[in-house]
Amino acid sequence: MQIPKHILVIRLSAMGDVAMTVPVLACMQKAYPEVRITLLTRRFFAPIFNQLPGVEVYEADVKGKHKGLMGLKRLSDELRAKRIDAVADLHHVLRSNILKRFFKLHGLPVRQINKGRAQKKALTRAQNKQFHSLKSTHRRYAEVFESLGFQLDLAEFEPLEKIKLSPGLSREVGNQPVKWIGVAPSAQHPSKIYPPKLRAH
User: Which among 22, 30, 52, 102 is least surrounded, fewest beta carbons within 10 Å?
Assistant: First the structure.
């Protein structure tokens, strides 16, 4: 397989997992500046990539024109029209698997993340846990690009510039040198939900 010149990267949700693509994409840009990157994600997450000018964010309107099987077919057609020549699926869910089938019908190479579900399940089960170090999400993302022929050194990532708070948010948190902790009260999975009895504290 030839080294791709224009990669479609798929990561639709959730916010933390989308944000964790930033170091990997930044390393890709640094090591391979000639490679175009189109990131398929939700519009809400686009500002996360403002400091990566070489990454074009393409909106997945999964509740509108890209909803359902025909919507995903339309989406795949739109993305192929951008002349992508390889796909890095960092999500590996039903939607991205359907897109994968459409892309493969047109001969596009698709590589998907190995989420290590079996290892994670073995570590978190109630009985007979298997205590082994697990790969980080960043490393798993990088391996997808490596399977497309790119070599990435995540140690080369340089933290992005710290973004200034908006005036409104600055008024809310004040100027005192204290640390804030953000808590997301809800989540998709019950095990990740912040306990309701602790929310009032």
Answer: 30
